[in-house]
Amino acid sequence: MKVIKNRKKIKRILKGSKSLSFIPTMGSLHNGHISLIKKAKRDKNKIIVSIFVNPKQFKNNRDYKSYPRNIYKDLNLLKKHKIDFVFLPSIKDIYSYKTKNKIYLNKFSKTLCGKYRPGHFEGVIDVVNRLVEIINPKKIYLGKKDFQQLILIKKHFSKNNIKIKIIECNTYRDSFGLAESSRNKSLSDNQLDIARKVAKILKKNKIIIKRNFGNYKLNNLKRQIKSLGLNKIEYLKLLNLKTLKYPKINEKFNIFIAYYLGKTRLIDNV
Ligand code: AMP
């Protein structure tokens, strides 16, 4: 496993590699990330994982600083999974060069997380665009857990005619149904228990909504979740994954949620 910290060096090393599979991460790796790695391993491409906590996508310096980091453990894990290349750029490596592509932020950025985190998706698109310009992969593996991010990256690629195949990966959940997330590490035992209950309620209510579409009151669900004792539900919405709009009767949909447990903000879609 080659660990490379410098932009120019990685460009030099990757120059001859034609079929790279790329997995961008912010580190503090968990089974969700590993599920992306396992999926990427199914084809014979060389795999490159980046670890970069992107300051541009955080609301403020405190959030950025408090994001969980564990580089030593991450590198051991990646080594165990026989990753070919790990890219650990500095902020300067990423942001000190002029990009070819212009950031395209589709209007889908205005809802869900984008509504509550101004500037967040600009930061996400900017960093992913810069990483792919440096790495030039054939495929990129992205999780459906961050569905809005996935769609916005897709739209950016399509607008800029970036020919990288996006591989959409299912959300990996623990045995209680909770989506794995680096932020779960910031939860107390009690908060973790609540988060698992939220996941369970969402799954159960999706079935009930399907049966009673039209009569179902999303406010009931909100009340049920709030009664678990969490601080704040930022949003709770139904979306058709294709139209990206509120679903019509008999259309497939997911329930999207963002909520706070203490200072920790969690998202999921079920
Ligand atoms: P992050 O390190 O949180 O920026 O995530 C890096 C990539 O892993 C993104 O494409 C995420 O959508 C994906 N990811 C994060 N959590 C999960 C999960 N529980 N299951 C599947 N993919 C995930």
What report would you give on this structure?
The strands form two sheets. A six-stranded parallel sheet has the order 1-4-3-2-5-6, with helices on both faces. A three-stranded antiparallel sheet has the order 7-8-9. The mean pLDDT is 97. It is of the alpha/beta class. Helix 7 (120-135) crosses helix 8. Helices cover 39% and strands 19% of the residues. It folds into two domains: 2-169, HUPs (Rossmann fold, 3-Layer(aba) Sandwich); 182-269, Pantoate-beta-alanine ligase, C-terminal domain (Pantoate--beta-alanine Ligase, Chain: A,domain 2), CATH 3.30.1300. Adenosine monophosphate binds at residues 25-26, 32-33, 35-36, 142-143, 145-146, 169, 171-172, 179-182. Adenosine monophosphate (AMP) binds at residues 25-26, 32-33, 35-36, 142-143, 145-146, 169, 171-172, 179-182.
Tell me the layout of helices and strands.
Elements: E1 2-4, H1 7-14, E2 20-25, H2 31-41, E3 46-51, H3 61-66, H4 71-80, E4 85-87, H5 91-95, H6 112-116, H7 120-135, E5 139-143, H8 147-159, E6 165-169, H9 189-211, H10 218-226, E7 232-239, E8 254-261, E9 264-269
Parallel strand pairs: 1-4, 2-3, 2-5, 3-4, 5-6
Antiparallel strand pairs: 7-8, 8-9
The structure holds adenosine monophosphate.
Adenosine monophosphate binds next to helix 2 and strand 5.
